[in-house]
Specification:
With about 220 residues, the chain is an all-alpha fold. Helix content is about 65%, strand content about 0%.
Length: about 220
């Protein structure tokens, strides 16, 4: 069953909601703003409401397949304390989550191009409840704080992604103190890899940040 879950995650992640939303308004989002199909560019070009809609759909296409995969192991708990699971099953579950993210970044529906994976990554992490859902909420909080202070979406995304392993450590300490425990190696490896991938996808944004030409929230992008 696991290869099927990975395939479902890949197909789900590949759905280019940003492109679909923009085309419903007669616009090819790839030819406007930054050219990205993600929620930030959709919001800048088409307005906040459609940007939020794109964000929600991108989150859901990572969340739903990952939740379905986890439900097959009967590891979804109402408690925030992670329960031990076999390492091989943890890797399979994480692979299903990563498939959603890679599908979004390299969608076969648009020539193996795509967005930067932040919203879909958030959804996929939230779907790994509670193992990575709580770290994802911590990273999201940091994203909000960073974006509010400096108004750079790219900077907030990079900082939040890089903080994920730290949030895994913090949540694991809290769980240990509450009597929980789980093999964290797969979760550390995947969150480190995700952080590196997000940084790689934001390399042009990082260059613009360093040169002082990156777009801020609330300002129309440089054409």
């Amino acid at each position: 069953m696991w290869p099927l879950f990975i395939l479902v995650g890949l197909v789900s992640g590949s759905i280019p909601f940003g492109l679909i939303i923009a085309r419903s308004r007669g616009i090819d989002i790839r030819k406007h703003g930054s050219g990205n199909i993600g929620a930030t560019n959709v919001g800048r070009v088409l307005g906040l409401k459609l940007g939020l809609l794109c964000f929600a759909l991108d989150v859901l296409k990572g969340l739903i397949p990952t939740l379905i995969a986890g439900s097959q192991m009967h590891v979804l708990h109402s408690s925030y304390i992670p329960q031990p699971i076999p390492r091989d099953q943890a890797w399979w579950w994480l692979a299903a989550a990563v498939a959603c993210i890679l599908g979004h970044m390299f969608s076969p529906f648009i020539g193996f191009k795509g967005g930067k994976g932040v919203a879909t990554g958030l959804g996929a992490l939230l779907g790994i409840w509670p193992y990575l859902a709580i770290p994802a909420l911590g990273a999201l909080t940091l994203w909000i704080i960073t974006a509010a202070l400096w108004r750079y979406v790219s900077l907030a995304s990079c900082i939040a992604a890089l903080s994920l392993p730290l949030w895994v450590f913090i949540s694991s300490r809290l769980a240990t103190n509450s009597g929980g425990g789980v093999d964290l190696l797969p979760f550390y490896i995947i969150t480190i890899a995700m952080g590196a991938l997000v940084i790689l996808r934001h390399r042009t944004n990082i260059q613009r940040l360093l040169s002082g030409t990156e777009n801020r929230l609330g300002r129309k992008p440089v054409q």
